[in-house]
Write a structure and sequence with these properties.
Oligomer: homodimer
Number of domains of chain A: 2
Helix content of chain A: 55-70%
CATH architecture of the largest domain in chain A: Orthogonal Bundle
Structural class of chain A: mainly alpha
Order of helices and strands of chain A: HHHHHHHHH
Radius of gyration of chain A: 19 Å
Number of strands of chain A: 0
DNA sequence: GACATATTCATACATACGTATGAATGATTC
DNA sequence: GAATCATTCATACGTATGTATGAATATGTC
């Protein structure tokens, strides 16, 4: 009678969607349970509390994100190519709640949820590893890999949410695939200039 | 008997601090009025509603930010030098609530407060202007000024909040002034590599 | 089919929220 | 100094929140 997957699964899916879009505070347990066609008590019963559900969501969403991340990092190709692939993924992938959630949590003084910290460290470590690799083979210029990793990730993270600004300035319209391509080209270009020892700048 | 400035002022100051640190949802009217040593009704009376107060806060915080921004942009020096000055300011300035508030609002699907959109457009337009200037005199490489402006601002915005991540990876500890300097040097370096037609990369 | 366990469900509880209200006090004007 | 206005104050209202409770039902086990 309910939607196919079991309650825990439905709650996780709905909660992931809502938390990513609205933030923890703006989403009520009633929002989640009603959309998941579950009883109000279901969150308490299956997860213990709203916050525990939130952490479970981060864990799951983060796992998906980190897997995409790591799998692209393990692909064949030069370090720079793999970095570009990751950045493109983070910038363009639909239904990628992780970056938004990370940004929102970072933009608070309240303590960061532990699973979120783990997620960020893991991904930054992956990125820093690629950068170190490139530095060893001479294709990536010197600099602290950790800081460079943050600078690299800053691009797709910010341009992703930044496309919400109605900008004559940048003329960004996320829906349009042409614009999408232009964005990717721009960001990959910036990454190249930032990292490469042989920047192919055209001016 | 109250703190010196008048109620409206105290409410604005306290609200700016709290909203910046915790976010709109996490701050209650009671939090604000009690800390401002004002009556519970004061927000309604002086501003009309909590949301109106929020918008007033954005307006004020944004005005301060935009002024710092514009004043640094109008300083003497090459476009790149002025861009570096702005970026350093955004990265290091204490009590600069605007970047955090902007990031948090961007990381939501809910409509952006109008004053915040105005603020972002104004600052990005200023930055894009500097970039155009540098492109005309040949010191800054080609590319859409609007997109480049976003990429430039992404650095201090993200590294600012990013310093909350306990990172062995990056070894960032905001308190330490040595680290602060290292951060500034890094970010200015990245900006140079991203924009300059004569990158002074040391490798 | 009886029992035990797991899950669902409706409802209750205590608390917190934003805002409204109306009386009390303060300041200003003539 | 009476009258008018602006502000402060305590309190009330309605609603929403997260969680707890205990009965009802489903599921699994022997």
């Amino acid at each position: 009678m309910n939607d196919s997957p079991d309650v825990t699964e439905r709650l996780l899916a709905v909660a992931a969607d809502l938390f990513a879009r609205e933030g923890f505070d703006a989403v009520s347990v009633r929002d989640i349970t009603s959309r998941a066609k579950a009883n109000l008590g279901a969150v308490t019963y299956h997860f213990g509390s709203k916050e525990a559900l939130f952490h479970a969501v981060i864990e799951r969403v983060g796992a998906g994100f980190a897997d995409r991340f790591a799998s692209l990092a393990a692909q064949p190709g030069t370090p720079l190519e793999r970095i570009a692939a990751i950045v493109t993924m983070v910038l363009t992938e639909r239904d990628l709640p992780a970056p938004t959630m990370i940004l929102r949590e970072l933009a608070t003084d309240r303590p960061l949820p532990a699973p979120l910290v783990r997620l960020m460290r893991r991904n930054l470590e992956t990125m820093a590893g690629l950068i170190r690799e490139g530095q060893h083979d001479g294709s990536i210029s010197k600099g602290e890999p950790g800081l460079l990793a943050m600078s690299v990730m800053a691009q797709p993270f910010l341009l992703r949410v930044g496309s919400r600004i109605p900008l004559d300035v940048a003329g960004v319209d996320r829906a349009d695939p042409k614009t999408q391509q232009r964005l990717v080209k721009h960001v990959v270009g910036i990454i190249h200039r930032s990292l490469s020892t042989h920047p192919q700048g055209r001016s």
